[in-house]
Structures are given as structure tokens and as C-alpha cells.
Amino acid sequence: MKIVVCVKQVAVLGDEVEFTGDEREVDPDYLDFALNEWDSYATEEALRIREEVGGEGDEVVVVSVGDAQVEDAMRRCLAMGADRAIRVDYSRSADPITVARLLAPVAQRESPDLVFCGVQSSDGVQAATGTALAELLGLPCVAVVTRIEWEPSASRATVRRELEGGLLDLTEVDTPALLTIQTGINQPRYATLRAIKQAEQKQIEVVSPAEQGEPAYRVRRMFAPPKGEGAQILAGGPADIAQRIREIVAERLK
Amino acid sequence: MARDPKYDILFEPIQLGPKTMKNRFYQIPHCNGFGSEKPLSQAYFRALKAEGGYGACCTEYCSISPESDDTHRVSARLWDDDDIKNLSVMCDMLHEHGALAAAELWYGGPHAPCMESRCVPRGPSQIPSDFEYLTYPKEMDKDDIRQVQQLYVDAAKRAREAGFDIVYVYGSHSYLPQQFLTPYYNKRTDEYGGSFENRARFWRETIEQVREAVGDDTAIAVRMSTDMFMGDSGTQLERDCLPFVELVDDIVDVWDINVSGISEWGEDATPSRFYPSGRMLPWQEAVKKVSKKPVLGVGRFTSPDLMIEAINGGKLDIIATCRPSISDPWLPRKIDEGRLDDIRECIGCNICISRWEIGGPPLICTQNATAGEEYRRGWHPEKFDPAENADNDVLVVGAGPAGMECAMILGKRGMRRVHLVDANDDMGGIMRWIPQLPGLGEWARLVNYRKIQIDKLRNVEFVPGTTLDADGVREYGAEIVVIATGAYWATDGLNGCTHDTIPGADAAQPWCLTPEQIMRDGKEVPGNSVVIVDNDGYFMGVSLAEKLASEGKKVTLMTPLGNIAPYMHFTLEAPNQHRKLHKLGVDIVTYHIPSRIEQGSVTATHVYDEEAHEQKWDADAVVLVTQRRSDEALYRELKDRIGFDALGEEGISGCYRIGDCEAPRLIADCVFSGHRLAREIDSENPEVPKPFIRERRVIERELAVV
Questions:
Q1: What domains can be seen in chain B, in order of their start residue?
Q2: Are strands B254-258 and B219-225 parallel, antiparallel or unpaired?
Q3: Å from B313 to nearest chain A CA?
Q4: What pLDDT does A244 receive?
Q5: Residue A207, phi-psi category: left (phi > 0), alpha (psi -120 to 50), beta (remainder)
Q6: Which of helix, strand or coil describes residue B104?
Q7: In chain A, which residues have their Cβ closer than 8 Å to the Cβ of B475?
Q8: Domains in chain A: ranges and CATH
Q9: Low-confidence spans in chain B with pLDDT less than 70
Q10: Stated pTM of the model
Q11: Model confidence over B396-419: pLDDT tens digits?
Q12: Could you say which of B175, B184, B275, B635 is catalytic?
């Protein structure tokens, strides 16, 4: 049994942001980096399946796209307990379709039973990589998964997915399949210092990028939205402010 | 980051008579336990605030003569030339940072017990102090008045010589000039008593004489309490203070305005339990309306938005801070640099003030473990040396006040990785629930500040929801282990009065409860009548009494002490807490210790008369606030079962415990404990605090043999 988990090192914005001179990117000086929150749930879910129903030789393999810097996030997954990690060496910024094209050959080569992606990344927030990858791999895809029931011997899994408006959908899917994993599906574990140290010693396989084709989009300009108008700051004690809010609401309701 | 332009007004210079203050941040006079006799501690303490951006810093109250000797409490003193030398260090260090230095010249009258000098204080009328026992003043005749005014003049000249830019003629807190102004103290029938003009005469003449002596190049400040909350006999805003401002406004350079007398000066140094920031603004605004001179005043301002509101609203010209400057000496600088989330906001617990009230010890601060340690331990609240063993990973078990502080400081000292592990989902330890006690909401700032800092530190990770046993610690992979597992309230009535348990006390019973069972675990307090047994003497017993009485219970608060919550007299919380409990109908029983507790009743005896005084109280529930015990199980497992040698073989070079886990203590001391260990984690033996500089006179051996 093998589960491939596709993970991303996301950029985290601080309170202040500046853009690069060409206005196409956020100045890296203003960025911090972390493992994408959704991907930590996806990794945890893969580890739990391996621990609960897996056996000798079963593997959880994390795959990511980026330069050597993204290995920090991958090592977090290794510290959590992933068995192997493969990095597709790519140093430019990439749109979700390009990322899927870069991931696809690696996922293909590994021929896993399940491929997990996070539903979305906290920096890009496009929720596209997982479904694009499923298409490229020719795998059935279930998005926004909040529960998985699966036996390695079975050729199908029962999964629960989240729909709009609090609805849940219980569905069956043939495996191999690609699932995009929603936060809250589990409680991701924290790695001990020992596990972190051991993960530091592990070799991360680096593969060259495949042909990416045309990018799906280009960033033309990044900018902070202009300040809106019409905000009113109310001064005074809580009672005065409450009274004033009441008046404003009453006025607007007229 | 840059300063938000809306705060620019805080950084505009302002003229105080002959002196220019570079901005609007003023450190109000406040005690620190150093006075004139620990001059380097004094100087380093004040200078750190100047380094942090304060435009002016003041001494604590600064005695002008041996007949104003506040011993056992510690004041500054300008009695002689040697005091000039000692305080000049503070002035020089403040000037190096571009800040003005101020001296609060003080004559206490009947409130100064003169326990060191054995002098006799002088006062307007012969009535003993309402603050100090057995202290009577000599009633001043005209010669006395001239002589005391000369003491002010001489001290002002010494202050100027020391390098002070601002000298006070200090009245607030019921000291001599204000005593003359106030009928409560002034019963005179001569030209210094009776009418407003007469009551104002002593203060006016003294200001005139001090101005005459030093006023050309030294600013004259007057600190006045504008309401003593005592009705007709106390100082009153309209009757006394506004006319006084008009009377002497021309010869005063800056007004320092507050409220209260001395016996309830918690109305001025307001605990957060009772008052929010800016509580004195109405009085300060009233003075500002009649004065042409700058008005400054305190209000425990920690938020720059409240500061600019006070200035833009015409209520103050200068933001004076006392406690917020102790909690964060770099408050102005952080506002200037746009680092608002780095501000260590004062929580208003008044543990700083408690040290002055106790008399003698240096001040401490719950939020700022480095307060008072600037010189003697060389600690800087914002600067940290990289640890010599920074290539180590540290495991801190327990994210309470001690554990959070330790992890944060270890992170700032650049340890490779720090894991702060806690069984709960969030940081805080006991501070997850203590701020939920009535009135203590602001105490949660202790947790919030550290959470934000820890979140910023890339080398510190909080690991929630994780309980480690000794083997878990051993296998965790850290080179250094810090145990901060806290303490718990005794469940069997063990207490410091009888040094024994209380027969029948057992918090496993549904009717018998401990504080954390009520606050943390949500254990229901059954029935209507509750007896709280309080041997602790600080906030826990009275806070629970207030909470349960507010919920409609009939509460009896019983203590073997002569007073409930005696420590709250030191934090100035006692008077209003008494009022609250009284209003809520809490029955207070002092000098009693339970001899037996059973379901439905508590039997107790008088501590000085065990046989004759046995009485029974109905009690549907009993709350045990008798003592705490360290939760040291994990530490004992590591030390006694596994052993430090065995841990060493696994690569753990040090295993230490901090905070309540070692011995229960004040929250401030828990924070200090975590901070101290982190500061000294690379010392020869981190378990033992390094010696601190004891500022004292060391005699030459030959001279000592007389």
C-alpha cells in the first residue's frame, strides 16, 4: 500500500507587505514560510491509514515542487512520520496547472493506491492543483473530503465530503483515486524534537522538472486595494458608542 | 515599521518653563526600593526608560530632610551632599538619552514615621497619621513653617546641583503642602488655616520660595490630588484645587494631577480589578481648563489610542505613566516604531506597589521580570545575548506563566529549537482561568503578550494537547529539559496554620471543592450556603467569595488570619474589595480555623482560644483555599526513577524545574523564575541563580578596626 501526499510550502504574510520592483510578487523579506495547513491534515490522514490498516513495507510518500527551501516543509512531514520525500526541483513561481504538470510524472512513477492533496493552499487559495492532477493522472477525484473508509485490499473507498451550506455527501470512489483533504478531518500530530532531528538526516530525492507547457496564467500586477471611504470612527464610552450605532442603523433602515 | 502618523502628537516637544521635553511621555514619580542609597540600581532603572523613549523620568518621592524619613519604606533622599552625588548618576544617565530628570521633593509630615532618623515630623495640626500607626507630628508654629520652607529651598538647590531639570513641590497623597490645604489635616485658626487663602498659604509660599531659589533654569512642578473622596473634610476640586491652580498658575511650570489621599491611594494607583485606564481624566481635564500651563497625569495608559484621545480631547498635555513604564520601559519607542503588538501591557495587579507598601524590597513586576534587575543582574528587557549553548534543543513542559516566559526568553536567546508542550489546547496554565475571576480580565494580558511573542519566534514551537510522562520526556529528543508543571490547591485542607490537614476535608466529595475545580473543571458548587476556608491571604479566597456571592450564594469567608486577604492591602485592592464583599453580604470570619468539616457544616475554633470558641457554620459546600502544592510528579519521576545520570546518557545534559512546580509562589515570581533560568541557561549551574550585585558599602578592613 502506498499513499502519495502532495504538499506545499506556503508563504505567510506579516502585518506589513511590500511588493517587488516589478509589482509581480510580494517582496520575500516580508514573507515567512510554513507547511500548508491543509497539507498537514492530508499528511496526518495518510499516516493514520498506514498505521491503522497498513503493513510491512507500506509507505507514505510526500511530494513537493520547489527549490531547496521548500524542504523545510517536507521535513516537517518526514518528522510527522512520512517514509520518503521527493522534491521536483523548480525555482520559478508556478500556477496550479503547472504544479500539477510537475507533480504528475512523479505520482505516476510511484503508482500509489491513493493520492492526497490539501483542498487548497493558504497563500494561493485556488483549490485547483488537486483536481488538475487527478485529470492528468486519469484518476477519479473526490474534493473536500472529511472522512475516509478504505481497506488496502478493497478496490473502492467510502468517503464523506463537505458541500455548501453544511451538507455532507457520502460517496464511493474506485481506487486508485485522488482525494483533496479538508482541515478538521483529524488532529495533525506534532513531531518530537527527536523525530525532527531524524527527519533532518533523511535524504530527500530530487527529480528534474518535466515539460510544463504553457502557464495557465501570468501575474500582471500585485497591489494593495485602495482604501475605501465612508468609515466613521465613533468616540466616547461604550454607552455613547452603542447609542450612536443605534441611531446610524435606524437612519439607514429608513 | 514606522510610526502611525496619528500618534505624531505624542512625539511633539513641549515646553516646561525653562526646559524643553522632547515628547509627551513622562515617567511619573514612583518607588522602586532603591532610593538614594542604591544609586546605581536607581540610575539604571530610570535610564532604561529614557532609552525606551521617555522624555522625562522622575525619582520616587524624594525626602528633603531627616524629619521626613519614611523608613521602613524606601524613598529617595536629598539630605546632604552625598545624596547629591548619588542621585547625580541618575540625572547623567537620563541626560545621555536626551530625557529630563525630575525630583519629587517630599515632606511627609505625620505620615513619615522617622524610624531611621528618630526625628519628629512636623504637621499643620497635632493629629496622628491615618496611614501609619503611632506617628504624631509636632504642630507647626510660625518658626516651624519658615524652617520647613527653608528645607524645601535647600533641597531644591541640592536637586539642581545633582542635575535635576524639574523639581516638585509635592502635595498629592496627603503630604505636607496638601495637608495644609485640607481641613481633614489642617485645624489651624491662624493665617495658615480656615479660609481657602489661609489653607493655600503654606503651599503657595513654598512654591514661591523654591521658584525664587532655582526657578530660572529649573522647572517647577506641582503634584496635587484634586479629590480625596472624603466629602467636606478632604480636598475638593471646585472648592480647593481649581482656585489653587488659578492662584499659583503663574509660578508653576507643569501640573501633575491625580486624586486620592494616602490611606486609600488605590484610588490613584488603581488596580485593574476596579478601574480601567484613564479613570482620572475628568479631574485632569478640569485642571487643564483653568491652567495655562501643561498638565500631566497618570491613568495606567498602555494604549496609544487612549493617549492621543486624552491629548486631542484637551484633557492632558503629557501622558504620565507609572505602572505601564515598569511593565514596558520601551513603551514610547515601541509606539514610535509601530510595534504595538510588542508592548508588554501593564495588567494592573499592583504587585509592584505591594513591595513599597511592605516596606523595603525592590519592586517586582508580573509582566516584566527584568524590572529592578537592570543593574544588579544586568538584565535588559529587550536585549538578549545569544546563549553559549544555543546549539541545544530545549523541551519546556508546561505552558503556564513560568513555562511561557522561559520558552520565550530561550527563543530570544537563539536556542536552536524550543518546544513548549502543554496538556491543554492553549497556553496559559493557571492563567487560563485566573483572569476569569471577577475583575481580573486584564490579567490575561500576561498570556496574550507571550503568545504573540512566541508566535513570532521561529525557533519556538507550542505543542498543544500533549501530555508527556517521564519516558516521553526522555525520548523527546531535547538536550535540555525544563519542567514547569505548576501547582494545585490542596484537596485535604493541608494548611500553613495547623501544618496539618483538616479532618473531613476531601475535595473528592461533591460538596467539597478547590479553586481549580470550580474555575477550571466546572465542578458545581452545590446548595446555597458556602464556607470558603482561606489561609492563602491573597486574591483567590476573596475572588471566589465575590464570584459565589454574586451568583446568589450565602458566603462565609473564614480565615485564621486577622484580616481577609492581607496581601491585598499591599496591592491597594483591599478597601474596594472589602466594600464589594460587604455589599454582597459576605460574612467574614477572622481568626478562625476549621477543626472539622463534614457534609452540611464546618466547625471552627478561634486560633487563640481553641476550647471556648468552637462554633459551627452551616455549609452546603466548602471551598478549600488552604494552600497549594507543587505538581512535581513528572520532575520526581525524571530525577528519582530515571535519574539525571541516565538522562545524561540519552543526551539530556540538564533537567530543571521552574515556577510553582518547584514551590508555589506569586505569578510575578513564576515569570521571574522562568526568565531567570532562560537568562542563565548557559551558566555553570543553571539550577542555582548566579549572584547579583549587592549595592552596599564594603568597608576597608583596616578602617574597621577602631
A1: 5-358 (3.20.20.70), 393-486+631-679 (3.40.50.720), 491-629 (3.50.50.60)
A2: parallel
A3: 10
A4: 92
A5: beta
A6: strand
A7: 192, 194
A8: 2-207 (3.40.50.620)
A9: 704-706
A10: 0.94
A11: 999 999 999 999 999 999 999 999
A12: B175
